[in-house]
Amino acid sequence: MSRKHRKHDADVEQTPVEEAVPTVAPDRSGVDYPRRRTHVEKPEQPAAGYRASKRSSKGGKRLRQSVKADRVKAGVSEKAETAGKALGTGLRYAGIALGALVGLVLVFMLVATGINSAARFLAKRQAVAANSPEAVQERAQDNLLVIGTDGTSGADFLAIRLDEVNGQIFGIAIPDGAFMEVPGQGFERIGDSYKAGPAVSMAAISNYLGVPFGKHVVVTKQTYQDALTNQSLAGLMDAVVSSDLDAAGKAKVKAFMDGVKTAQVALVPLPVKPINLADQTYFEPQRDQVADLLLSWWGVRLSADDGVIRVIVYNGSGSPGTAGEAAQVLIKAGMRVVDTKNADRFDYKETLIVVQDGDLAKGESVKKVLGVGKIVNQPSEQDVANIIIIVGQDWKPSKG
Questions:
Q1: Is the predicted pLDDT of residue 329 greater than 90, yes or no?
Q2: What was the pLDDT predicted at 123?
Q3: Is domain 304-400 in CATH 3.40.50.300, yes or no?
Q4: pTM
């Protein structure tokens, strides 16, 4: 291609299209063609100004606040409903739990009450069994009352327990001037009880201590004092003046006493409080301290609930000494005589056993011991004695 032609081409390429191809408007005369709307008129906008913008701002703000308030109310309502359901569920479960707890407490109380009632019943049964005449006689075999007297006035006593199982001897020394209830004689010096015989002294001491004594030995006052001073009963049986033990019994007691070492012997004075009346000195036993000794050495409890039947004996037969004799029989059977005195009259044909605490079984026990008697249930608020006995003419003391 020649230089001339190349230049021509270049000139053509550089020419703009609009200029190279002229636009020819078509001839639309006489033809009604719809025209394209190239401009859409917008609605007239309100004039923007301070008041218009303020009204628009307040309305939008109220709208937004209203929407927000509705949303908050809805949220609060939903939370309240959820909390209400949770609270209702919690209360329901709490009610169930509380009901179960109350039920368990009631069951526990019923069980505990039943156990306590059963325990009291069993304890009462055991106490009654432990104080039956048979049990009392069994325990009495280990006990011995040593009486120290010169045959003049009064006597001292040493209530001892011979514990052969453990090789020990325990004893409580009771002075002549100790005041006690003496069957048939009332409250008086225990030493004076010996005037009526050793059986009365044994009954008085058994009654006071709650410990049964069925056998005794009598020694001189010097022998008695030596035993207390030396804290030993070795050789005591060689100095016995009189006794209700047979030969075999004496030999057995002597062998045991002589074989017990001093370290295994405890002889203590009865805890008393001296009382001076005119020119006489009496001794009031201190029951609390005595109770400690009895519990430690004999396992005996001095209380109203120890299972021992407590009685008051009245003489209604007219025969002197009847109340005291009946009291001795009752004491030997393990009962405690609180008092003995005369009845309001002496013509009672039949013995009356008046039950004061409502326990008729105790009345039956008394009747079994005496062998006679009419049981009368007469409840009383007094707690001194369980039973009042009016000995009638139908009761006779055993000659044995």
A1: yes
A2: 44
A3: no
A4: 0.62
